[in-house]
């Protein structure tokens, strides 16, 4: 599997779990499911950063998103 795709999916998973985490905190519940989802996304990002250490930085994140989008449109 392409590391760009794994990185982008991991970032999207982590970002999509933020509202669920905030909702759980606001309702006074323990955020068990959102924490698991964030853990899955973090493991995906960690795997990719471990495979290619200097490729994925904060500055290169938009480039990774564009490469994934370009691979689906072509």
Description:
There is one protein chain. The chain has 74 residues and is mainly alpha-helical. The protein has one domain. The chain contains three helices and no strands. It is elongated and about 45 Å long. It starts with a helix and ends with a helix.
* Count, helices: 3
Distance between the termini: 17 Å
- CA-atom Rg in angstroms: 14 Å
State the order of secondary-structure elements, H for helix, E for strand. Answer: HHH
Brief summary of the model shown:
By secondary structure, this protein is mainly α. The chain has helices at 3-27, 32-51, 61-73.
Keywords:
single chain, mainly alpha, 0% strand, 74 residues
Question: How does the SSE layout of this entry go?
Answer:
Blueprint: H1 3-27, H2 32-51, H3 61-73
Helix pairs in contact: 1-2, 1-3
Transmembrane segments: 6-26, 33-49
Keywords: Membrane, Transmembrane, Transmembrane helix
């Amino acid at each position: 599997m392409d590391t760009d795709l794994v990185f982008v999916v991991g970032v999207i998973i982590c970002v999509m779990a933020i509202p669920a985490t905030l909702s759980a905190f606001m309702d006074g519940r323990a955020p068990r499911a959102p924490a698991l989802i964030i853990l899955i996304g973090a493991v995906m990002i960690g795997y990719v950063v471990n495979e290619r250490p200097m490729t994925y930085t904060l500055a290169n994140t938009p480039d990774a998103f564009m490469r994934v989008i370009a691979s689906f449109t072509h």
